[in-house]
């Protein structure tokens, strides 16, 4: 463990003007506050904050950050309050310590809820000052270094998973690759122990059999640079076991099939020399197509700059090479932290672009699971680059679509997106984007995000924004539906239900507003009987549920959105004009079924509502079973009938086939029941069709 004078000397080495007395007081304070507390290793607990402070000195952080590292656990694990910290060390340190401190554990919260709330508080703090993140990453790194002392395997795996999902990606996002690699390696050892042991053993065997190979390749590259007059420092290393394992998973190959387990780095004086060195490499050795990336011309979102290429060395050996300047190398080692060296004037704003996205996700995520899912999506994915028509560059995770791109440009643009052009060509919104695509988003002020987008978006920001809109629309529509049900309930009660009775009923149901009442009714949280009892206490026509007044009029679903407040049954495919009923279950959209649906005869839990489409309702999906003669052109004739009647085919599949007939099931978009019946009549009149019927289940 680092002693008090050693810590002070480390800081003095890069900041001669440091307040030594303040540092000493912070060191003594953390020792006194943690007292006899022990870590799982048996070491005094205060050894941990001291080591975290030591990690901060390696980054040459300022005095307040060093003190924050020393005190970061005092508020959470001792009787110290934020006010105590502020009184002793000032408001700046108190603010930083508060940002790093986890929320107090609340027993009613689940593990996910605690993790989500801690993450929420933490991200809000680092949006204000990125030093909070630097201390937290050092805190997690030291905890991972001592993780093996924890006896419980489940607890070790939980901490390792959290590190892999949250903290390693955060380190990567600010360019702290050394922290990221070490955290990933330590987490990998806990999460995949067998794979870790296998890969490390194979690497050790390779080192033993060819320990001079890396040195020989490095010397060969250095000689090529020297002959071309380029001053370069060349070094080689094995790839990290986790990086190798990840590549094995992505490529679905065994260790022996990987040919590029060694990586080499060329460090040159300036940017121009980077491109000269690249030319020397590609002239001397054959490059591997598709393995070249220029992060100098197009830096990563975290500011990382370097040139990556893969070349074929002797005996068809693939080796990866990174080329960067000395300045780029310093930034690549510690990323954003490199800008925080004491008294630098260009310390970056904590509100980096990716961080703004995370803060927006915080504001739009409703529950803990959603928050954790969306932040992981935002942080932990490989990136591609796409451009707006004006040339603005946006980084996105692989698997992104034009919808993700629209939300990356601006949330409002994502909300209004109706179509997209990629490289000048109209494409569906679910199209996957590739590196270098030029994307133009077509928008309409009248449009709103569609629930179906959730099936293909890849970014946490897009998913959070879409869910927010769906929730708001769902709430509004459930209130609208609940109001109609409420009016029907009132019509079944004796006497007129006025504002006074409604206010009294809200009190009995412990609700604050009429909207809350309508929402509870629409979402199935309140049964008709409970509402009746709240509005008219003592009203009891009989003990049996069947003796209570039943629904008097059908509830209209006109104006409500499929997939939001109600869902059309996949079993019976109702269309406007069908006699319909709805299954209302708590926390779920109302399921709409035809009166012929087999679900009606089941004993499904929930309340059945008598529903109507409402005058002028349009649009639905019907399923047909069509048997056609097995002759050339018959399928085309069937499709021609659909086209003539302006009905769009959603899905078409053959379900049976023999020498004389083919049987198809067709999902068809129609306006209403009369439209569907005209199509069925036309099919039955066709010589191509032997039989045509509607399918209800």
Automatic annotation (TrEMBL):
GO terms for molecular function: GTP diphosphokinase activity. Its EC number is 2.7.6.5. It holds the Pfam family ACT_4. The keyword GTP-binding does not apply. The keyword Transferase applies. It comes from the Bacteria. PROSITE patterns: ACT, HD, TGS. Belongs to the relA/spoT family. In eubacteria ppGpp (guanosine 3'-diphosphate 5'-diphosphate) is a mediator of the stringent response that coordinates a variety of cellular activities in response to changes in nutritional abundance. This is GTP pyrophosphokinase rsh. It comes from Sphingorhabdus buctiana.
